[in-house]
Amino acid sequence: MKKVYVLDTNVLLQDPNAIFAFEDNEVIIPAIVLEEIDSKKRNADELGRNARQISRMLDSLRNEGRLFEGIELPSGGMLKVELNHRSFAKLQEVFADVTNDNRILAVALNYHLEEKDNDTPRPVILVSKDVLVRIKADVLGITAQDYLTDRVVNMPDEIYSGHLTIRVHPAIIDEFYSYRFLGVQSLNLNYPLHPHEFVILRDEMGTSKSALLKVNAEGKKLEPLYLSNDPIWGIAARNAQQRMALELLLNDDIPLVTLTGKAGTGKTLLTLAAGLMKVEDERKYKKLLIARPVVPMGKDIGFLPGEKEEKLRPWMQPIYDNLEFLFDTKKPGDIDKILAGLGSIQVEALTYIRGRSIPGQFIIIDEAQNLSKHEIKTIVSRVGEGSKIVLLGDPEQIDHPYLDASSNGLTYVVERFKEQSISGHIMLERGERSHLAQLAADLL
């Protein structure tokens, strides 16, 4: 049975192509949605770009007919800009305020009541990224759904972790230590292993015998880790996942590395230590470029006085904190003098690296979970010849209003690149900042 989908503004601002995602069903855009999109089109951010894109798309569709009468979509469905179901009378009994959200709800409710009177009523479904709008719809008896098409995985716990533990017969572990490699087929798995995925073998008999291995770039063979656990810029791996992360960070044959994990797991500190070793010690890269998106947690503090460096300092302070630890500075301001003297370390807001081509650099993008799919594509496609890019973040700590753990740019890269030989990923699980920080991450 065909359905009627009423779209909220946030669905189109999240995915301008959403109108094509509902197969052969009828898609309704309330008139107030056009007004909300119009109010966003001058924004210089991702929402503004998406507002302009959906505006151009709807304008091009006018060639197929009049939008308020309905036009046929390539999928066989129908798209209509709704003008005739705006009556607020039925909704006022429950929600009296004439807000934009309530106007969208009014359109969905009037459609719902109209379809109930038909001989063969079609289900009317309101699609919104706004939880409260979906709750209001449920109060009114309207079916409401989140927009899930943009999700990379269905549930956050399905995100690729980059490592797994397998219990095997002790003879297999002995074979690995004898020959220093294992064929993937010798594990008799009913699922594939990905390039540069890490495997911990444990004795199924219950002894302490174990081995830490890495899948090679072709995904056919399990090999030992090549790096020892010696400190790098005073930082040594404190657990198995951190050792896996350093293996990827220091491997020049892997130009794309993604690290995820809760606060305090060591993502930024390990990556900065690896970057400093590659840039300052080995001279493998010309520059260490560190950037993060300017997305505030909580209320924005507004405009800041001063030059660019002064304006950026509050946003970049977490990076400077880690650099101060690595350089073991004693006084406030010492880190600025050190960075000015070196000249090979650049800390930027992400705004300033978009549109550039960046060859021969070790690039670190912190807080990448606050980036959309389009933004992450723009950034990764900036990477020039001889560069390495590392994306860091916690998909569970997102400050972007239209992203979640399953639809953000970092998760998108992890899932799309997990089968590629030029990339590697590790989900760090154990906090090492302090016992208090670990408890906070687990309990709060």
From TrEMBL:
Keyword flag Ribosomal protein: no
Domain PIN: 3-135
Coiled coil: none
Pfam family, one: PhoH
GO MF: ATP binding
Domain of life where this protein originates: Bacteria
GO cellular component: cytosol
Keywords: ATP-binding, Nucleotide-binding
Cited SUPFAM superfamilies: P-loop containing nucleoside triphosphate hydrolases, PIN domain-like
Family per record: In the N-terminal section; belongs to the PINc/VapC protein family.
Protein name in UniProt: PhoH family protein
Native species: Paenibacillus cremeus
